[in-house]
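In response to the reviewer comment on reproducibility (Comment 2.3), we provide here a single inverse folding case reported in full, input and output, so that an independent group could reproduce the run without further information from us. The structure tokens appear first.
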């Protein structure tokens, strides 16, 4: 077979209901698969799209019983996708340095003949053995959904991906997709479902252990070995019965907030999700957007309003130093791979619901030979907002000092296509395994950090997720 080319078929010009969209896609799909001129393997991916009347992708997803299930909202809320099923995927599961993982991803995305997005994520560091709860997540797992609702700038569409695998007859691939379309629920939502009662919560490390570990780290700063390190905590929540982790997204109380919403559920009840405010980067061909985000103040800690929290943060010498490590490292890492690096001079305050962060925006142009996601991922991940300075020493310390594996926590999560990508940093995140949910968040330690305040900072960072779990939102 020569290189198959990919095509896109639009099935409805005017917005229609979900059932109408599914019907027109089924009709186009059947017509396509029964056309003999298509049987010669000319096409690898055929994308069918139908415009939809107003549809909420998250409510649609909640109503579907087809896995994997994924969900993505960018920080601005202008780019939303909910997807089900696996048309194609890029999966890799071998321990080793992350640059191998990134190159594997690059090699596979580059070989595609189409520009559709693959959604997924990767491990923070790919060398640490992971607990069994992480098993379905792999070193790297990106997938092209079989069916998805995408809403960009308030224009929802239903998309179906007919993907013909090597050696597979077109009719078999079409039958698979048709089956998913038949099983897609187009009816009314059966009711939201509720989060069951929260039983126990335990923290790893304990507060006492955290303080001891932080003090050890502060000694390494005084000895001059290290500049910054981010230590994370894990909270283990046990519920009375298993439930759908999607309820965390459905119950998120701040739909207008400046956070990404990311959800990846490879198997029923086993999901990784994140309400992260932090962009790793956005790439469109050679144009790159990235940022430094580090340094935190909570409204609660000040018992004052957001304006005061912003003012406090912009005058906090320790937080500015904590932020500076990230800003300087990003500039240094971009230098060899970019031109036109435009890193804002002035640091700003980014307001979330209960927290304020220091934030610096950066844009740059990738050099032609560097315009690939493997190059950008290797350069930027992990920034000293989640790793430390110097990077390798910090990564080793994190593995030595944290009493759990990070898995996908703080790893790059998002989507990638041939010429574009957007990755968020998977912090303020959770791993769900039926009735157990692990929450992850961390804090940046620099010389002068106070271990007890850093413990409280992490409490505030997981505050929204804990409130959902306790049903006190
Ligand atoms: C590592 C996390 O937050 C980072 C991002 C913003 C502010 C941070 C801080 O002030 O410590 C952290 O560097 C996390 O939430 O898990
Ligand atoms: Mg901090």
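Designed residues, in position order:
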């Amino acid at each position: 077979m020569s290189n198959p080319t990919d095509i896109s078929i639009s099935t409805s010009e005017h917005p229609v209901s979900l059932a109408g969209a599914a019907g027109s896609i089924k009709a186009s799909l059947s017509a396509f698969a029964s056309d003999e001129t298509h049987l010669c393997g000319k096409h690898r991916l055929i994308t069918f799209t139908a415009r939809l009347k107003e549809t909420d992708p998250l409510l649609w997803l909640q109503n579907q019983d087809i896995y994997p299930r994924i969900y993505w909202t960018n920080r601005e809320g202008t780019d939303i996708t909910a997807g089900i099923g696996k048309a194609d995927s890029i999966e890799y599961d071998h321990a080793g340095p992350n640059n191998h993982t990134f190159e594997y991803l690059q090699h596979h995305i580059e070989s595609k003949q189409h520009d559709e997005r693959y959604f997924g994520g990767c491990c923070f560091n790919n060398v640490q053995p992971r607990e069994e709860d992480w098993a379905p997540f792999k070193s790297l797992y990106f997938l092209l959904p079989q069916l998805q609702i995408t809403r960009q700038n308030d224009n929802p569409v239903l998309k179906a991906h007919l993907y013909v695998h090597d050696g597979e007859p077109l009719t078999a691939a079409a039958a698979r997709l048709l089956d998913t379309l038949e099983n897609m629920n187009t009816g009314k939502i059966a009711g939201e479902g509720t989060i069951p009662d929260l039983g126990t919560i335990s923290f790893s490390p304990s507060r006492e252990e955290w303080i001891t570990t932080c003090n050890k780290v502060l000694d390494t700063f005084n000895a001059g070995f290290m500049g910054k390190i981010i230590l994370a905590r894990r909270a283990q929540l046990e519920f009375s019965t298993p439930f759908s982790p999607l309820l965390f997204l459905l119950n998120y109380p701040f739909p207008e907030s400046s956070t990404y919403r990311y959800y990846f559920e490879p198997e029923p009840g086993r999901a990784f999700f994140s309400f992260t405010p932090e962009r790793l980067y956005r790439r469109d061909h050679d144009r790159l957007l990235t940022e430094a985000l580090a340094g935190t103040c909570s409204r609660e800690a000040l018992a004052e309003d957001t304006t005061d929290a912003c003012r406090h943060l912009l005058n906090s010498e320790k937080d500015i130093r904590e932020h500076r490590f990230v800003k300087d490292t990003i500039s240094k890492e971009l230098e060899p791979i970019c031109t036109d690096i435009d890193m804002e001079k002035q640091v700003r305050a980014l307001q979330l619901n209960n927290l304020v962060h220091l934030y610096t925006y950066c844009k740059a142009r990738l050099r032609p030979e560097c315009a690939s996601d493997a190059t950008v991922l290797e350069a930027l991940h992990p920034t000293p907002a989640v790793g430390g300075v110097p990077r390798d020493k910090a990564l080793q310390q994190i593995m030595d000092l944290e009493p759990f594996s990070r898995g996908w926590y703080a790893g790059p999560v998002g989507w990638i296509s041939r010429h574009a990508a957007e990755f968020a940093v998977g912090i303020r995140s959770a791993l769900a395994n039926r009735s157990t949910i692990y929450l992850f968040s961390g804090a940046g330690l620099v010389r002068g950090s106070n271990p007890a305040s850093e413990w409280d900072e992490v409490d505030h960072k997981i505050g929204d997720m804990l409130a959902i779990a306790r049903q006190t939102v």
